[in-house]
Amino acid sequence: MGIIENFGKVMLNRSDLENILDFYNLGNLKSYLTYPRESKHLQLCYCLSTTTGKYFLKQYKEFDNFKHHGLFLVNYLLENNYPSVKLFNSKNNNPYTEYNGSKVALFEFLDFTIVSNMTKNKAYQIGKYLGLLHKQTEFYPFFETFETYEYYYDLFLKYYSESKRLSCQLLKVIEYIKDNIENLKVPDYLPQSICHVEFTLEHIIFKHEKVFKIVDWDCVNRYYSFYDLGTTLVSSFDEEILNFNYLAEIIKGYNKQRELTTWEKEHIFEAIQFGIFKFFLWGLSEATKQNNNLTWGYNWVEEFMKYDKIKFYGELYKFIEF
User: Fold this and answer.
1) Which of 34, 107, 165, 298 could share a disulfide with 56, CB 3.0–4.6 Å?
2) In a 3-state reduction of DSSP, which class is residue 201?
3) 3-class DSSP assignment, residue 53
4) Do 223 and 137 form a contact (C-beta atoms < 8 A)?
5) What is the DSSP secondary structure assignment for residue 259, as one 8-state letter?
6) What contacts 286, CB < 8 A, 6 or more positions away?
7) DSSP character for 207?
8) 62: Cβ contacts below 8 Å, ≥ 6 apart
9) pLDDT tens, 158-184?
10) Cβ(191)–Cβ(138) under 8 Å?
11) How confident is the model over 233-264, as pLDDT tens digits?
């Protein structure tokens, strides 16, 4: 992952925010609000009201090469008319600046509510803009990869070695993953591109059923587009049920922008497995901390266990023809 800078917890006051704005051409500070967006790599963030408008200040708790390149990528996407959240460069034309040893970046402020309800049109739009991202960044220079198949395989092995501590319900899913995870490795010749890593409803803002803005570019890396698509296909679950109509629409929208290879079309089943396994493993660390509560992603894996590949494609082909 390159060098990770860890800044500890830093609270900013009005004077700090005014000093940060001095690095930008965004007017003078009028007022500000703290914004509860803290996470593993983010500090408390801020909504700034200035004499020129409202802005979202993202303050990093950890800053690595992926966040560095992700911010430069946002500028590239905006230059190519991709609907990314707008990022404001500093007076020195940098996408982020350093203040008191930590890194901060300023974005347009988007006042929105996370959309959880899927529709056919939204599903198509999600596929369309993921495909466009992969198409536009096929040759975008990026120096390293982190979220790999091998990373998740090793993460699974770690949890499998500790699985005796897990509940019977989680063990059932762990055994299913064990039986299938080795089938998810892709051939080396498949297309690569910049991958968002979590291109899902939570990071897409819609207006009138159309994609308006895509946010959260902190974990981008270059890898096989197939795996990024698999993560997005998890959005076709309607609550806990796999909705093949939504699934087909995501694939149609994607395929219109970047045509899937024959191998990819024949392995949509494995793409979804990768996505649901990934979310399950993300949540498993929290489940082990919380006395074996069912983890995020558990219900998706349990639902998908109802399908073998023949039954899966039989349902999918009711809604799409390749």
Assistant:
1) 107
2) helix
3) strand
4) no
5) P
6) 295, 296
7) E
8) 4, 5, 6, 7, 40, 41
9) 988 887 777 788 889 999 999 999 999
10) yes
11) 999 999 889 999 999 999 999 999 999 999 99
